[in-house]
Amino acid sequence: MKKAVVLGAGGFIGSHLVKRLKSEGYLVTGVDLKYPEFAATEADEFIIGDLREEEVCKHVLCTKPDEVYQLAADMGGAGYLFTGAHDAEVMHNSALINLHTAKWATHFSVGKVFYSSSACIYPKQNQTNPDDPRCYEASAYPADPDSEYGWEKLFSERLYASFHRNYGLEVRIARFHNVYGPEGTWQGGKEKAPAAICRKVAQARNGDKVEVWGDGRQTRSFLYIDDCLDGIRQFMASDFMGPVNIGSEEMISINDFTEMIIDISGKSLDIRHVEGPQGVRGRNSDNALIRERVGWHPRYTLREGIEQTYLWIAGQLNQQQEIIDLQRLHQA
Ligand code: NAD
């Protein structure tokens, strides 16, 4: 039986990946500061631990797993990453996790390490035109990411590539582009645009206005979680080290995206533009390289994935409301 370790297994992508690896017959150890928020973990073993501590990393990797998936990061949506308020924490925390992982994975000669980098590494000057952003892999240099989060990801890509070059560590480096789906953070400040907009629409009543940050003409593409898992697994099985984009090429403006979610809800709502952190003007995945080298491409349309996500978030809101109603009933 193959052994896999998932770092960040309590997070959105990590918790889904644990399920996928279990369904493929792996023995899985998950590590995180916390358990998954929305469903019990399916990992055979789940270690609550802080990967900024070298001893935790060492302990987890000394079992010499065949595959390590490094997804742990200090992470959030635009409201967390693009205000500047968390820059020091983001860089310090995530860099420490990656420094320890690269070192101990090499020391214990683990099979392969998957590293989740991000579309946020791409230079901001290539993403000023919302209709034609350039995000193919080789465009990463000369580097100028628009956030410290992106700089840390770029540093860690280079860190893993260096360990490969100097010590032969087998690595697979992927750049995720906006992954979304059920069981992702949908409130509290760390949620990303798809979940935030689904929540706002689900909370709204007919005639309300849904708030969108900026003028809504900024563009993005969003990747459904099941497609992301397929991409990770196929890339890991390939002989290509990357970095490669794992994203969707279905680019959409935030206005049109919001209209799509309003349409799914069946409500009659308008959009109100408000000030807020927006990130770059345009971003879209370019999947030419991963298509050619790995043979992967997404299966779900944005509408299909968002329908599932909207239903799940609306369900979460209903549950929350039922709890509030029950508490009121008890207090009365
Ligand atoms: P997430 O925040 O849901 O998961 C990250 C997990 O890492 C969290 O559960 C967190 O508790 C854990 N973690 C953070 N610090 C830790 C520490 N010191 N020790 C142990 N665990 C720690 O994020 P996600 O959306 O699942 O993303 C997974 C990875 O993919 C991250 O590295 C992220 O930067 C990258 N990524 C995600 C997206 C996306 O759209 N979701 C896009 C680009 C890149």
In short:
With 332 residues, this protein is an alpha/beta fold. The protein has helices spanning 12-23, 54-61, 78-81, 87-107, 148-167, 193-203, 225-237, 254-265, 288-293, 302-331; strands at residues 3-7, 27-32, 45-48, 67-70, 112-118, 171-176, 179-180, 209-213, 219-220, 223-224, 244-246, 252-253, 270-274.
Describe the structure.
The chain is of the alpha/beta class. The protein has a domain at 3-179 and 224-246: Rossmann fold (3-Layer(aba) Sandwich), CATH 3.40.50. The protein has ten helices and 13 strands. The protein has helices at residues 12-23, 54-61, 78-81, 87-107, 148-167, 193-203, 225-237, 254-265, 288-293, 302-331; strands at 3-7, 27-32, 45-48, 67-70, 112-118, 171-176, 179-180, 209-213, 219-220, 223-224, 244-246, 252-253, 270-274. The strands form four sheets. The protein has a seven-stranded parallel sheet, sandwiched between helices. Strand 5 (112-118), helix 5 and strand 6 form a beta-alpha-beta unit. Helix 4 runs parallel beside helix 5 and helix 6 crosses helix 10. The radius of gyration is 20 Å and the shape is globular. The model has no long low-confidence stretch (mean pLDDT 95). Nicotinamide-adenine-dinucleotide (NAD) is lined by residues 8, 10-14, 32-34, 50-52, 71-75, 93, 97, 116, 118, 176, 178-179, 192.
Overall radius of gyration? 20 Å
CATH classification, class level of one domain? Alpha Beta
Distance between the termini: 56 Å
Order of helices and strands: EHEEHEHHEHEEHEEEHEEHEHH
What is the name of the CATH topology of one domain?
A: Rossmann fold
Beta percentage is 15-25%
Spatial order of the strands forming the largest sheet: 3-2-1-4-5-6-11
Count of separate DSSP helical elements: 10
Binned, the helix content reads: 40-55%
Count of extended strands:
13
